Each structure stands twice: as C-alpha cells, then as structure tokens.
Amino acid sequence: MSRGETPLNAAADRNDTSRAGPRVPLRDHVATSIRRYLGDLNGCDNGDLYEIALRELEIPLFAEVLEHCDGNQSRAASMLGIHRATLRKKLREYGLA
User: Fold this and answer.
1) Which of 1, 30, 31, 79 could make a disulfide contact with 10, Cβ separation 3.0–4.6 Å?
2) Domain DNA binding HTH: where (predicted)?
C-alpha cells in the first residue's frame, strides 16, 4: 500500500481490472462532491453537514456492499467491519431493509 492510501482504496485498486490508467482515490471523489455541495449552499449554513455527509455516504455504501454480498447481511457487515445488528439498524433507518 502506498503512502496515504487507505486499505479500502488499496483493495479497490487491486480488484478493479476493468479500467486502465491511474485510479482516483475514493476520498478525492468525496472531496469533489463536498466542494460542489458547499458551493451550492450559496453562503447558507444549515448546521448539520456532518449528518448529511454521513447519510449520503452510508446509503450507497451499504447498498453497494449488500449487492456485492448478494444480500447477505452477515457478510456485508463483516466486510464493512461493523456488527450485523448495527447494519440492520442502519438499513431500517435508511429504508434499505
């Protein structure tokens, strides 16, 4: 793993052979999206950016990992590094269950 690379990015780089050329770390995509979102606020401060960002990240993360694990919540929770009960709670909270 290179300096500054997270295990998630390293795993994605090792497993993704569908694209040639340099790979952009996930955090760069997130930073770009946050920058765009902040620009769209036009100076307004809604005060709950952390909750919004966490929700916007968790929903597609859980959905994609569940799909990758063929709907197996135990495997998905293990892959995410969280307890299965936590995953189930989040899935219900986000309307994904």
Assistant:
1) 1
2) 54-94
Third-level CATH fold of 23-93 = Arc Repressor Mutant, subunit A (1.10.10)
User: What's the rounded Cα separation, in Å, for the pair 81 and 76?
Assistant: 8
Q: Please list the pLDDT of the chain residue by residue as tens digits (97 residues).
A: 444 545 555 555 545 555 577 799 999 999 999 999 999 988 888 789 899 999 999 999 999 999 999 999 999 999 999 999 999 999 999 999 8
Contact 94, 62 (CB under 8 A): yes
For the chain, the residue count is: 97
DSSP string for residues in 48-77: -HHHHHHHHHHHHHHHHHHHHTTT-HHHHH
Please give the structure tokens belonging to residue 11.
């795993």
